[in-house]
Design a protein that fits this description.
single chain, 779 residues, mainly beta, Ferric Hydroxamate Uptake Protein, Chain A, domain 1, Maltoporin, Chain A, 30-stranded antiparallel β-sheet, six-stranded mixed β-sheet, 49 strands
Amino acid sequence: MSETLHHIFRNTAPFVSFCTMAVMSAMPIDAFADIDIKGRVFSESDSTALAGATCRLFAGTVPLTTTQTADDGSFSLTSKDGSSLTLLIENVGYTSSDISLEGVKKSIDLGTIYLSDAKDLQELVVTADGRRESRGKTIVIPSATDVKASSDALSLLRKLQLDELEINPVNRSMSVMGASVVILIDGIPSTQDDVNALNPSDISKVEYSRFVPARYADKGAGGFINIFLKKRNDGGSVYAWGRGCPTTGFVDGNVRGSYHQGASQFTLSYNPSWRSYNKVYDYSESSLIGDDFRVDLSSTAKSPFYYLSNPLNLRYIFKPEESLIFSATFNTTIFNDSRSSDSDTHDSLLGDYNSSSKTSSKRFTPSLDLYLRKDFNSKSSLELEVLGTLSSTDYRHTMTENLSDGRDETYITDTDSKRRSLISEISYVHSFSDLTELSAGYQNTVSGNDNRYLATGYKATLTENNNYVYLQLSQQAGPVYLRFASGAKLFWMRNDLNNRHFIKNLSSLLASWKIDPTWTLTYRFNYSPSIPSLASLTDYPQQTSLYLISNGNPDLKVSDSFYNTLSLNMRKGIWTGSVNFRHGYTHNPVYSDVSYLGDGKFMSNSRNFNSQVEYDSWISVGVNGLAKMFGGNVTLEYVRYEAKGEAWRKNLDTFGASVSLWWTKGPFTISYWRKFPGKSQWGTSVSKDENGDALDFQYKPDKHWTFDIGWYYMFCKKGTQYPSWNYSTVNPSYRFRNIENNANMICLSISYQADFGSLFRTARRGLNNRDTGSSFLSQ
């Protein structure tokens, strides 16, 4: 039988082939051409582009191809079969959309497709698909659940569980290992105030790295974060947030408005912060020990303080095409600060007496930041930035000691300061391929500082010329990513009495191995010098108390720091985790020390000591989406410090931890944050970071309003606490400050957000019969 079939097929095959060719030649030429299906996916509620939405194309029930939308919501799929196609679009937090494409014979643009908000968010399954490790960075697309459960941008960032990024919801700040963070928003240099003014629903993606690129290595930061905002069409948005405590002088606020028209975008934000604390208490014990002199001091003081900060930001962005962007940002901050202290002191030589001090400062800091980026093609781009700042500070300090013998000793250190600075930068990036990238740049800072000491009339003029040139090479080799950077810092400083020149190197190395989709191993090396400031080099003694004289030190040396870090990161479903080890060594570190001058007088100034060593290890475990509504993160840390001077050694072992938890169901979110601070040591000084915890209850009835009640520093009668010790052989001391105004604080906050369409044109109707004149921010 099989032989017969074989014989028939062999004899008829030429005929079948001929017929097939004839039929094909008679068909239209595009019958078998690829069919391109493209469009854009937007949110129906606020008309923002949905990045990362999944688009699946089916032929009947057979899946053909899958893609995800880009940052601007666009997608493109290709098929050879157009007879019976179905497009399925899905995104977390939105209802899915099925589009029938029956009988499609040529490429089609579906225009804008709108997804509606899901009605019951507690039924959503939150996965970790929006999180990945790439080229030494963690890239996260916030889920709709996390956005809905966040009243401000910082609470959203806390839920993203970025390694070693510490978010303090009370102080509204973020840091990495106690250091600052380089902040970009849509690639444009920004500040903490800019982040605090963001609406969490405007954030589309976050890129974070513990490795600071060479371009920003001169800033001494501990981490790098780039926050991308959703793209918008013509229109605007308004976001307002306020927080206050009925029983304490504690008020924070944000007001942010933006408007986009054509290629232009305008943003205005105002972020005031006010504190008026009268329950601030200080206790101290100290000794001053000289060759033939010793005095023991102890004091208790009430030290109320007040401040008002008024940062105002106006930004204009012009983007006529995708390859060109220009921004102009005007920042100004008016800051007023007032502090006083009334203390009772016991002096082992002079007996008991009263001391009082008053300190005030007024600061005005306007600046203009101009930024330009030009992409020449897909492989090379150039960035230019110029930042000019004018600042003035009026500082007033009076210290009076009413001694037991009837004498009154008064010490005045009033200073008026003016600073002018211009920072210029050029940066060039070229990609040789998808695997290799080279960047290079140059930064220059020129500044002048005038400090006038009113008590004596002395005026110190300080000038600096700081140059930094760098080169950075990145290479992807299979699952391994390598980045090496090196630069030269050339620093010239001068004041009336001193001239200092420095030429130092800055270098860093990153090696990241993506073992598999779950595990990533990363090694980081960083060398950076710390150059003393002109103020610390200025030789101008000022008496600040009965026994102490304060001065600069023109003989300070540069400190050199070397850090090696090894990290193992894990991502598996809804779980994330990391294990980290770091070794740090600093040669010639600088600390504040006291020496005996003779005749009962002591000098306090900055000095170098031999070395500072740190052994740091920490582990972090996080989960997001457990039981569809629960998330949390726990970090445990152990640090050993070893400091060595000429005639002393000081070691310290310390533990610290932090925990962050949140639970979301429908419009309600409950979150808890607590920090268990460890100690830190530098030279002979040991301190403990402030304690902190916060329990928040949030209610979000609709897309516009959010109401929040928070309980801070729970069950803590002393409020925030700041203990410190100094083991100096000349000036051993213990100090403790507590701010009882913060104890058991109940804070109320409210936020409102709204979008509106274009003011200058009528609404247009798209192919899907939707209004496209809504509020969109365009990058």
